[in-house]
Predict the structure of 3-keto-5-aminohexanoate cleavage enzyme.
Amino acid sequence: MKDTSRKVIISCAVTGATHVPSMSEHLPLTPADIRDQAIEAAEAGAAIIHLHARDPEDGRPTPSPDIFRRFVPAIAEATDAVINITTGGSTRMTLEERLAYPLLARPEMCSLNMGSMNFSIHPLAAKISSWRYGWEKDYVEGMEDMIFRNTFKDIKRILLELGGHGTRFEFECYDLGHLYNLAHFVDEGLIKPPFFIQSVFGILGGMGADPENMTVMRSTADRLFGRENYHFSVLGAGRHQMSLVTMSAIMGGNVRVGLEDSVYIAKGVKAESNAQQVRKIRRILEELSFEIATPADARKMLGLKGADTVTP
């Protein structure tokens, strides 16, 4: 939606379920790590904190509500950031597992992948010579033969069950067709504006990280929804992160950073924390004369129900 003040929402995806511990020693794995890095990212300027959970024993992705409860309430108590819980989980989880914690917490926001896809980072396995945990190599290499599933029926269930509790969504669109999937559910009356469209670039199986693709996504969303009815945001995977999200802001959109999306802060340099990435993009945006949205701004822009309605 049009925002005359041009405030830019910074989202931070803290840990995700794609990168494995061997890819970075700074990737938060334990509840305490996730809590501390999320709080630091919020203090650095992230209005939205996007959260996955990991098993503290070996860092593998987990849908366990008990693990989520070991860090989500602490983040909510320490910050006023919007807490955004994944419904994507990982390719190894069932829909029931992915929804287990969101249906209990009924958060202000959840991520929602707008279609099934061949989501994979399996080529990266060849670049890792030493694996920290036994599960990692099979997990990464196995993505070559895994599909992330979100059928129309799956998406409809998420919209009805979580949307019925007032949760709104970060609609993750990895390809042009995902915008048309979103439009289908708008036509069915299951999604109302303002929409928060997170365009994802640079993941194998989805759109490449080409600036031209961003232009196509933006113009298609304008045509399908009308620019006044949605907020555009971008995440760039890996080395494409900072350049693409900066372009998003210049095109009138918002930005997402975080160790879920890239474990680097510069070419060949690992990011030491999520907050380091938040501080970098904030500096870039402020030097370009953009104003950074506060959590209160984000709640108003996105029509969220408010943190006081959530029971993490």
About this structure: The chain has one domain: 7-309.
